[in-house]
Specification:
Length: 218
């Protein structure tokens, strides 16, 4: 049994090559949208991609990928992700699939939530993946620490921070940067999303041609 466990562990470890967290200080800044777009772009580039949707406050990735609420199954090595295509190039596991009632998560508190997230994160049988993208809840909470803790068996390559012009001014992104520095997660880049909308709000249509600003550090 122990050998089987070890073999499984090794298999598991080798088969997810890169793990990237997508973080934001606030909800509604486009974190799930960016996660989905990144996944589709990577798939377009011929990579096998997985999305782990851990956002208990609003697991929205299934809707964005038109997956709905499928029944998920467990095999020996954990929850089997849902594939969005016949080639099995985009795998998805959402915490939303496990909730009886989508509003249920709201009533969970502290330890129960953290334990559930931990278990969820470590119990997905991803098979072979080039990149695993993790859509986290907004903020820097115990839930994030639980995600990191349970992703340890995979090497976390770093985080993409998503923000909006408004969030920059309220310091949310600074808190995210502090969180990454404290937990030793490398910041791969910051995406300033919905910049165009901000231009429309501030300066009228004249400046609306601007695209969103993306800073990639590496
Ligand atoms: N660049 C963008 N342009 C227009 N709408 C966007 C953009 N990014 C996100 N949205 C919209 O904003 C809303 C919130 O995005 P979402 O990805 O769910 O945010 P989060 O996951 O951070 O809560 C959604 O309705 C989404 O379609
Ligand atoms: Mg979201």
């Amino acid at each position: 049994e122990r050998v089987k466990c070890m073999l499984y562990y090794i298999f598991y470890l080798v088969h997810v090559r890169h793990v990237v967290l997508v973080l934001s200080g606030k909800g509604g800044v486009g974190k799930s949208t960016i996660t989905t777009e990144l996944a589709l772009a990577l798939r377009q580039a011929g990579k096998r991609v997985g999305i782990l949707d851990v956002d208990l406050c609003g697991p929205s990735i299934p809707r964005m990928l038109s997956v709905g609420r499928p029944d998920v199954h467990q095999c020996d090595s954990g929850w089997v992700p849902v594939y969005t295509d016949a080639q099995k190039s985009l795998a998805l596991m959402s915490i939303g699939f496990l909730l009886e009632d989508p509003d249920e998560a709201i009533v969970w508190r502290g330890p129960k939530k953290t334990a559930l997230i931990g278990q969820f994160v470590s119990d997905v049988a991803w098979g072979e993946l080039d990149v695993l993208l993790v859509d986290t809840p907004p903020g820097t909470s115990d839930e994030h620490l639980a995600v990191l803790e349970n992703l340890k068996k995979h090497r976390v390559d770093g985080a993409v921070l998503v923000t909006t012009p408004q969030a920059v001014s309220t310091g949310d992104v600074r808190r995210e940067i502090t969180f990454c520095n404290k937990t030793g997660v490398r910041i791969l880049g910051i995406i300033e999303n919905m910049r165009m909308q901000q231009y429309i709000l501030e300066g009228g249509w004249g400046r609306a041609g601007q695209t969103d600003r993306i800073s990639i550090f590496r």
